Amino acid sequence: MPTQIDQDFWIELKSKLQTLLLDIGLDIVYAVICFFLGVFIIKFVMRLLKRALVKSKVELSLKTFIESLSIFLLYGLLFFAVGSILGIKSTSFLAIFGAAGIAVGLALQGSLSNFAGGILILVFKPFRVGDLIEVNGKLGEVQKIDILYTSIKTFDGRIITMPNGGVSNSDVDNRTAEKYRRIDLELKFSFEEDVDRLREVIVRALSKNPKVATHLDVDVRLEEIREYDMKIMARCWVPSTEYWPLFWEQLEAVKKELDQEGIKIPIPRRTVYQGGEKEK
Question: DSSP of the chain, one letter per residue?
């Protein structure tokens, strides 16, 4: 008798397991198919979105942000669909996501502030992709603005990734926001040099460069009379995007023009007077 009961129990258990596995197995198969089909659809939709953004000539910084946010939302919908196929009710699914969202939100408060910072950057536009900016002592060209981070490329080829929360709450020095930027050259000369002649020579040197803004003044002024020399400030305006190459070119042009005119940069000198012998 016990043997017959045991056999019936195992037969019934086997039947239930087969039924359960059959039902769950079909759900798993459908979920896997849905997942891979969803990934394919997401990639297809993202390609269409990228083309649409290119045709609409959306600003590059906004374009990268929209792409990042779209991927996040589409994959969220995909996981919701897969969960529904596996039998997770929408209310339960939303409750799980809500609880997980609260937990993740508490653990990733910095990331949420970075997301908010990215929104602020795109709304108020303190800088855009391609701008040369300095933030917290980091100087570089903006390469990418994502939903959480901003990447800049320094002059020596380094990529610096900065959290959007910190960037949006910091002073941003945008050096290419305006079309033109002023070059300031600080020069020093001896007191014997004629200021008017210096002005003529330096203005001529600065004005030779074809990239100098002709509608803005080239200015040379006596800035300060110091103990051993006088300081001359020379200023001209150039395109902001070419500031540093033109800065070095103009400095070199002024040096060559001064050499041709025989004007030397002064060397600090000190006159020492020797007193006479003391009377005995």
Answer: -HHHHHHHHHHHHHHHHHHHHHHHHHHHHHHHHHHHHHHHHHHHHHHHHHHHHHHTT--HHHHHHHHHHHHHHHHHHHHHHHHHHTT--HHHHHHHHHHHHHHHHHHTHHHHHHHHHHHHHHHH-S--TT-EEEETTEEEEEEEE-SSEEEEE-TTS-EEEEEHHHHHTS-EEETTSSSEEEEEEEEEE-TTS-HHHHHHHHHHHHHTSTTS-TTS--EEEEEEE-SS-EEEEEEEEEEGGGHHHHHHHHHHHHHHHHHHTTPPPP------PPPPPPP-
